[in-house]
Each structure stands twice: as structure tokens, then as C-alpha cells.
Amino acid sequence: MENNTDIKVNEPAVEEQDEALHLLHSFTAPHENVDADALEWAYNQGLKSRDFTVKTIGGDVYTNFSGLKRITPYEAEPAPCFEVFSLDGLCDWLNADVDGNIELYQHLFIHVRNERSVTVETRRSGLEQNKRYTLACCEFPLHRFPWGEYIDQERFVVMLLSRFANDPEGGRDAVGAFVGKIKQEQSAKTMDDGVTQKVAVKQGISMTTEVPVKNPVYLAPQRTFTEIEQPISPFVLRVQEGPSIALFEADDGAWKNVAVSRIAEYIRSRIHMGVSDKTTIIA
């Protein structure tokens, strides 16, 4: 049987009404021309607004104040999202469970949103089971490389050595060796058949040699969390007079799928058995 409870809010006694009217009049400054009937009408409207019923129907609380409305139960919000910088930090936070989230929510989701973002979220929870909270987040800072832009030789070499991993295939070293053979004081003639670009580099004052650069070149830029092996992807290397060099991405973002998969695998290998049983990794 439904537990229906009516709560009637009583109107004030006559003496209380007279006292309230007296107080309202006393708050009116003497120089203000306020009609007493208008003031009493406003007071009566206030009384009517207090005359309402609260009823519990099927466990939910309703009121007929200004039309039938459901009163939303109050529930405290969780603590702000815990922010970490690295995947190791996120795994340490999960393993320690200092806030008791696993006991509180029973099961957590580790969401690898993309190659640079991971969050820890609850399943649907709360009094009405319609909320999902983000408990922790891990973001990899974006270090933008000027893809598709021609830059001078010195800047290109610095970026190549500082923002690219030394991949097992030796792609970074090969590109670095090629770029290093082009001197700023020399002119570079380019011959291109669409696949292989040849650059004529003047050596000394007596001879030139042709240095072949077969496209695409395979490199591993630092584009995701440093704990995982950086995905290798193809790039088109181009050289113009100056000399100036440019790299163009040539895999249409397929490397991101590899990065997301490696992030999920890394987290899976780092969290403890008791935690992994109560977490699900979504990648």
C-alpha cells in the first residue's frame, strides 16, 4: 500500500495576522503614500502562498504549491575531480583508493577518451540513479608540431631531436642525417617524381651529390603519454630552397587508435588485482 502523508501548513492565528500587519505598516516610511488596502491585499497573497499540501506518493514527495510539483531529494555532490599529470600518477591514485571510491561506488570505469585524456568515472549513481560522476582525470599536455609548415633548418633539427622519440627503425636519425647535410649557405636543388624527392647538395666547391629521400618517412613524435611507446606513423618530408623543411602527416590520424590501445594496456598492467576486479577500462 502506498504511504501517502498529507502535511497541512496552518495559517497564522488572528493575533499573529494583526501583528504582522502592524509590522508591515511600520516598515513603510512616513513620506511614502501607500494605500492600506493594497498593503493588506499583498499580505493576504503571502498567506495564500503558505497554504499548501505536501504528499508522499510511492516514495516521492510532491507539493501542490503553484501546481503539483515533485520535490527533488537533496544529495551532496562528490569531491572535485582529482587531477594528475601522468598515467603512473593515475594508477597510484586508483591503487591507493584514499577516498574510498571503490567501496562507495562498488565499480568504476576508466575511460580512455583519446590519446591525451583519461578519466575515472562512476556508473550511474545517486538517489535517483541518473548521475555519473568524474572522480579523476589525467591530461597529457599538447606540444604542437607545425605539421605542413615549412620551417628553417635549425628549428627543424631542434624540434626533431626534442619532440620525436628515437624509434627502433631509426627514422628520426635518418631524417636528421639528411637534414644535417644541407648547409644554409648552400642552395639545394630539388627533383621530385611524387614519391622520391632528390636534393642536390653542393659539397665544398668541386662536386655535388644526390641524396635520395624516399617518402613516406616513418617517425614517432611525442604525441601521447610518455609512459607508453610512441606510435610510429608515416610522414611526407619536403624540402624547399632556403633551405626550409616541412613534415606532412600521412596516416589520417590512424596512430591515435594505436595510442589509445596502448594506454589501456598500460593501465591494465599497472593497477592491482583487487582494483582491477572492480574497474572496467573503456578505450
Key structural traits:
five-stranded mixed sheet; four-stranded antiparallel sheet; 283 residues; 3 domains; single chain; alpha+beta; 8 helices
Write the topology of this structure.
Elements: E1 6-8, H1 14-26, H2 36-49, E2 53-57, E3 60-63, E4 69-71, E5 82-84, H3 87-96, H4 101-105, E6 108-114, E7 117-122, E8 134-139, E9 151-152, H5 153-163, H6 171-180, E10 188-192, E11 196-203, E12 207-214, E13 217-219, E14 233-240, E15 244-249, H7 255-270, H8 273-276, E16 279-282
Parallel strand pairs: 5-8, 6-16
Antiparallel strand pairs: 1-2, 2-3, 3-4, 6-7, 7-8, 9-15, 10-11, 11-12, 13-14, 14-15
Helix pairs in contact: 3-7, 5-6
What does this structure look like?
29% of the residues lie in helices and 29% in strands. The chain is of the alpha+beta class and 283 residues long. It folds into three domains: 6-71, no CATH class; 82-142 and 262-282, no CATH class; 151-251, no CATH class. It has a five-stranded mixed β-sheet with strand order 5-8-7-6-16. It has a four-stranded antiparallel β-sheet with strand order 1-2-3-4, with no helix packed on it. A four-stranded antiparallel β-sheet has the order 9-15-14-13. The radius of gyration is 35 Å and the shape is elongated. The two termini are 46 Å apart. Mean pLDDT is 79; it is low at 204-208.
Count of helix runs: 8
N-to-C series of helices and strands: EHHEEEEHHEEEEHHEEEEEEHHE
The description of the largest β-sheet is: 5 strands, mixed
| Shape category | elongated
- Low-confidence runs: 204-208
How large a portion of the residues is in β-strands, by DSSP E? 25-35%
Strand order of the largest sheet: 5-8-7-6-16
DSSP strand tally: 16
Structural class: alpha+beta
Mean pLDDT: 79
Number of domains: 3
How far the N terminus sits from the C terminus, by CA atoms, comes to 46 Å
Q: Compute the gyration radius: what is it?
A: 35 Å
Helicity range of the residues?
25-40%
